[in-house]
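sry for the spam today, last one i promise. struct tokens for design, 158 residues
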């Protein structure tokens, strides 16, 4: 169970801060929800309390783990499937799982691939989503603004 003020990650959506816990009636059913404020896009997300584990909600990484994320971003790309549709599916699955280190690999690999040859529209979407997940989490952990973290990310990926 999380509390108001906790920094959490909602896989697929990214990191944010729990602003409140509210009871809402949706489709005739009353449930409690975390209201999470996202640092990117001035957006809020409702997360049902009774579904936290199934959704893969977790706390943000610690400050020491940000070094690991940056190290992964600085490494050479790993072997990826040559067929973009299979790559897309594999990357989408990893994003849903929410492991920040896997998402860092996706961002690094796709940025490098995009520099070499343009990505398909689907992969551009995956890259944008993965970047937002990393950006939002690093913003909260490092207490930096979006532009600062984005610049750090872009200069780290070789």
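last one done:
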């Amino acid at each position: 169970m999380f509390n108001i003020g906790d920094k959490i990650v909602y896989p697929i959506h990214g990191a944010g801060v729990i602003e409140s816990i509210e009871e809402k009636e949706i489709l005739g059913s009353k449930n409690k929800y975390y209201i999470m404020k996202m640092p990117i896009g001035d957006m809020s997300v409702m997360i049902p309390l009774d579904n936290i584990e199934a959704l893969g909600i977790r706390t943000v990484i610690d400050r020491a783990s940000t070094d690991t994320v940056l190290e992964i971003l600085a490494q050479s790309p790993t072997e990826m499937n040559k067929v973009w549709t299979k790559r897309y599916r594999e990357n989408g699955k990893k994003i849903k799982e929410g492991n920040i280190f896997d998402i860092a690999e996706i961002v690094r690999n796709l940025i490098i691939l995009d520099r070499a040859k343009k990505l398909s529209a689907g992969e551009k979407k995956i890259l944008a989503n993965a970047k937002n997940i990393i950006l939002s989490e690093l913003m909260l952990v490092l207490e930096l603004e979006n532009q600062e973290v984005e610049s750090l990310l872009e200069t780290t990926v070789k």
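The first helix runs from residue 52 to 55. ok im logging off now
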